[in-house]
Amino acid sequence: MVKENLKVIYNKQIALDTFEMKLETLNMASFAKPGMFINISLNDASKLLKRPISICQIDNNHLIITYKINGEGTKILSTYQSGTSLEAIGPLGNGFTLVENKKTLVVGGGIGVPPLLELSRNLKKLGNELVIILAFRNKEAMIYLDEFKKLGEVAVTTDDGSFGFKGNALDYLHNNNIEFDTLYSCGPEILLKKLEEKYQGFEGYLSYEARMACGVGLCHGCVKGEKHYCVCTDGPVFKLGVIYGEC
Ligand SMILES: Cc1cc2nc3c(=O)[nH]c(=O)nc-3n(C[C@H](O)[C@H](O)[C@H](O)COP(=O)(O)OP(=O)(O)OC[C@H]3O[C@@H](n4cnc5c(N)ncnc54)[C@H](O)[C@@H]3O)c2cc1C
Questions:
Q1: Residue 69 alpha carbon, nearest atom of ligand 1
Q2: pTM of the full predicted structure?
């Protein structure tokens, strides 16, 4: 983990209230793994707490993050132009465990989709066969469909039926019997909880969110599960069964 000033290369809207930001970094990209996140300081004196955002794409000296406007901090983030310097710490968290030569089911919900892009690229390189379900509220919220289509068989669901299957990812899984060895997911907590229940005993890795302050395991503001795991340092990725399987 390092503290660095990252330079905004671009910051563009890619879907409803959703932005993609490319950041130049000296050191962070070399430590970054799919599923890890960075904790970004906003250049605003009224916003002392950093904002945790997952790493969506990694190359030699760049990180791409994708975020949805969710409150004042992410609204401020959306205004930063190319050339802005942003202090951040990272990469943080444990990242996804990567399997090889398996049939993997990747399930993304809403703004949980971005970290699954770098994950899926890595899984594909490791010889895995990917079935990918991307769930969104509506067509306007869809992101990265073309990118995922290059990596495996993709099904899209929208709550309102404006694109693809009408319903959510769980409805889709209920209607389609998909066989797989390993499950990966990131999305709303209710989706992750239901997946833990439905696929008890399967190998799976799920990325959870929690409101967090320090991001490095000191404040214990982001604990989850009966054993009070810190999402920032024990997670954000947990083995299937760890957060809800024990309750
Ligand atoms: C490990 C991790 C990875 C994340 N990755 C992404 C991502 O890739 N894209 C994305 O759009 N969002 C992501 N989030 C959620 C994102 O951090 C929040 O949407 C953001 O912090 C909200 O800040 P705000 O000032 O706009 O909202 P406000 O509600 O005004 O924020 C107030 C405070 O609550 C905290 N907070 C609010 N919502 C959350 C939340 N869901 N999780 C954690 N802290 C929160 C903020 O950090 C801030 O300190 C991630 C969260 C975590 C924990």
A1: 26
A2: 0.95
